Amino acid sequence: MESCDSTACQSAREIFTELEEIYDDQNLYFRTITSVLEAASALEVPHRLKLMLTQPKNEIMVHCPVEMDDGSWRLFKGYRVQHNNVLGPYKGGIRYHPEVKLDEVKTLALLMTMKCALARLPFGGAKGALRINPQEVSKDELMRVTRRLTAALGDNIGPDYDIPAPDVGTNAQVMAWMADTYINFAESSSKVSARGVVTGKPLAFGGSAGREKATGQGLVYVLDALLPNMGIELDTVSCSLIGYGNVGSWTARLLQKRGTTLKAVMDHSGAIFNPDGIDADALALHVSTTGGVHNFAAAKAISNDAFYATPVDLFIPAALEQMVDLEHAKRIQCKVLVEGANAPTTPHAERYLLEQGIEVLPAILCNAGGVTVSYFEWKQNRQSETWDEALVDERLKATMTRSAERVLKMSKRLNCNMRIASYASAIEHIDKVYELRGVFP
Ligand code: NAD
User: What DSSP state is assigned to residue 200?
Assistant: First the structure.
């Protein structure tokens, strides 16, 4: 149990008391908003902004009855949390996971607000989820539940209002079903623009070149921008990864092209190690056929403890939230922890790592490549354009590099760590827009 008696936690508790809410410090939402409020306090923004950021604007809950293949019926719970839209339409992924909870979705929506603001995208933050194990249902069942969820969300999503995308447990096919359902309900005059209701669609149906690899690609561009300042060269380093799904496997494959050696990987099926390097492409093929890294022939199985203790230059968590806690942090031997997943590091783990001189690069900077190329997809859909991969990569690199420079500059200005600096840069932008727009009425 990681309890918190710091000044930052104390001021977060005071804000929740003012909002007549009680949160305990084990809660992911409390942990995340505490850092956001710490950054807001460092900037001395108006108190009203702290209040507005502490609660999402809308929390939508739906229940979707779906007939299963065997004739039985199940009721699936769905969420959409719309955190803030002062910068533009709400934007954020839809997660399919059997244990997803409202506070997890709220946290991810808050992080989307911060992520879009840091990258200066014209989007606010949202996140959605459905309590389902996508591996345990048939393709037809998955399609029916997706269509039912889309219908249940109704006008709460739309290309000018709230634009979902893939996340854990969803993919381009799920986005295609969502877009198709939404288009079927759309007025005939808006059917063309209606496909912009979701991003991360298949290429043949309004998707963007480079979207599938975008999050991993963006992470590599951030490393390109920041590692030289730390005296680290990408082509000579080693890394380990938690998670070998979209973010993990693309990060590994793109880093391999740059000469990085992948020493160890852990996912839900187990952990593997090869001191001479694991072939990232061969592992991606193995995972796509078997479902996990377990039994990969060209590496040996190791325990989870041994995985964390493997000495590497870059340690990259790219699976689920809060997987790196204080006990793990004490085992980790790396120079930089690079957050590929959202909120993978607990506050105590982060503090410990920083005390050891290990740099922690925050998720809202490192994994913003996905939402950035989603923005490019939305833009292409609106303009009926198709960009090639080279153009997408060029623009992605420019966005990620500018964000990394912003964070670096802010960390020097406030003399703070990279996480607080990344939130501060996002909040400063949001504050400026609230000042210009005013707060209605
Ligand atoms: P994914 O579903 O493709 O992969 C998830 C990975 O996590 C899998 O390899 C799975 O084995 C692993 N995992 C699950 N439970 C685990 C456990 N208990 N121990 C170890 N590994 C476990 O998901 P993804 O799209 O790669 O997303 C990963 C993270 O990145 C999430 O936090 C997501 O919100 C974030 N993210 C994703 C994108 C994107 O474009 N896909 C963009 C930004 C952020």
Answer: S
